[in-house]
Amino acid sequence: MRSFENDERGDDGTNRDPPVDPEPESSVEPASIAVDGVSRSFGDLPVLENVSLTVDPGEFVGFVGPNGAGKTTLLRLISGALEPDSGTVTVDGVDVHDVPSKRSSQLVSVVPQDTTLSFSFPVRDVVEMGRHPHRSRFSGPTPEDRTVVERALERTRTAELADRPIDEVSGGQRQRVVLARAIAQATPVMLLDEPTASLDVNHQLETLELVRELVAEGRTVCAAIHDLELAARYCDRLVMLADGEVYRNGRPADVLTGESLSDVFDATATVTRNPITGTETVTAFPNDARVGNHSEDESDRRVSVHVLGTGRTAAGVVARLATAGEWVDVSVGPVTSGDTAAETARSLEIDRLEVAPFESLSPADLTAFEDRVRNADATVVTESVVDSDGTGTRRLLESVETMADAVVIATRAEDDTSREGPIASPERERGVMATPETVLEAIRNALESDRDSARSVVDFDSSETSSSSSDGDSGSGVSAESSND
Ligand SMILES: Nc1ncnc2c1ncn2[C@@H]1O[C@H](COP(=O)(O)OP(=O)(O)OP(=O)(O)O)[C@@H](O)[C@H]1O
């Protein structure tokens, strides 16, 4: 590996090294990290207990977990800034707590969560500080140092800020300047604590793309990242911390699951694959999002709901019903494998009638669908299904028409609600954003109004509160009427 020990310079401060590499900071040799049985408390508060993990050379590992899980503490232990109560941390085989800080600074650079600096140096000087571990105390910057600094400024798109005082740039700009300083430090290991926290979406992506470039050049990177989707998209591996321990450690798809998010974040979440990035997308709801006016007595009574629809609207209905509590039994289908609604149901382990793409419904599928509709207390049909002209869909709607106890039509704000499908919709009131409360209230209204053929409409995903429905169902955004005509 490149030897920082031998980074000696002459008394005049000039560099006696070979000619300057145009991208000298990219020449670091990869190094591994080994955290072995590390524990750390603050006073009486045990924060990390017997944590062990390894990070391979040239790997990008994300630390995820709820607030206070110990991500920052773990990063500080790896950097050598914080002593463990027990256990060891080695970087490239060197115990970071057993070497002078100059040596650990040659191995590990840090972008902290709080990038506030207590001085007013120009941005270029701040980045240049990253070179200090490579210089003797009294030597000034070498041509190589200057090249590395300019390159780091360019790579983080902070070159245009180079002459401005650090305390006069924005928080997001400062975060990129501190990243530039870490890049200039040219260490084989980089530790980033929430590197995208203050950044706009464009700079978030640019920063993480840059981190991937740095990893491709051989750096080993660990980053605490709250944004689970960005973590899944950019990290090779995720370490999920909870209660001071490593709860899961593995590929993003294995770490981010409905079960782990429920256990660790106390949230009910659907984890689906983003069709564009091909990585995990997380949609979370607080655990047990109880329906507001749902009494204890009612919770004893289970309500079964079948959802007919595809895409985002059906996925939203399914997720919201599933998170309303255990007293709602949800099923969905037919849905095409890979559809958002199918993926959502899969990740929430909801009963679903799934069919292969481009295959027409078999008689067995139709029978299975009809059984579910017949046995459900209510069937939710999404607006696009109601409006569909497809022969297969109309066949399903006929079954709903004849077999469902109660029907709730879920609309989206942007849908054209003027058309009417075979299920005659009553006055389609605009409503509040659909929550488990509004969907379930619609179901309850439908069930109560006329169990034989109740029709109800809930306006899904509208953020506008509108006039109440004609039956005086004020503010709920839900209307229900009997269509016993
Ligand atoms: N210097 C300290 N003194 C006392 N307690 C501390 C100190 N640093 C951290 N803690 C405590 O240790 C726990 C873990 O904190 P840490 O910052 O490591 O969590 P985190 O996972 O990074 O959280 P967040 O996601 O909120 O940044 C918290 O309860 C915190 O209050």
Automatic annotation (TrEMBL):
Where the record annotates domain ABC transporter, the positions are 33-268
- Where is the sequence biased in composition, kind Low complexity? 456-485
Q: Which SMART domains match?
A: AAA (SM00382)
Keyword line: ATP-binding, Nucleotide-binding, Translocase, Transport
Q: Which reactions is this enzyme annotated as catalysing?
A: an R-cob(III)alamin(out) + ATP + H2O = an R-cob(III)alamin(in) + ADP + phosphate + H(+)
- Bias type Basic and acidic residues, positions: 1-19
Any one Pfam family here would be ABC_tran
What Gene3D superfamilies does the entry give? P-loop containing nucleotide triphosphate hydrolases (3.40.50.300)
Q: Which GO terms describe its molecular function?
A: ABC-type vitamin B12 transporter activity; ATP binding; ATP hydrolysis activity
Lineage, top-rank taxon, reads Archaea
Cited NCBIfam families? PRK13548.1 (NF010068)
* Protein name, as recorded: Cobalamin import ATP-binding protein BtuD
Which organism's genome codes for this protein?
A: Haloterrigena salifodinae
User: Source taxonomy lineage?
Assistant: Archaea, Methanobacteriati, Methanobacteriota, Stenosarchaea group, Halobacteria
